[in-house]
Amino acid sequence: HASIAEYCIKAQTVKRALQQRWAPGQRFKMAVEAEDSSRISWFMGTISKVQEVDPILWPASPWKMLQ
Known about the structure:
Layout: H1 11-19, E1 27-33, E2 40-46, E3 50-52, E4 64-66
Antiparallel strand pairs: 1-2, 3-4
């Protein structure tokens, strides 16, 4: 059943994300908003593994799971 989205993302942002090629060793920086939206914290790290989310449920999915 359909529900109301809690947030929206611009289509251009999604298209750019799908073009990104992730690889182990790659560094990243991600903004994380506090639950009450009072502040934004930055999380930085290094990708250690890239894998399919669930190749049985979603074969050939463009989305990847990063560790």
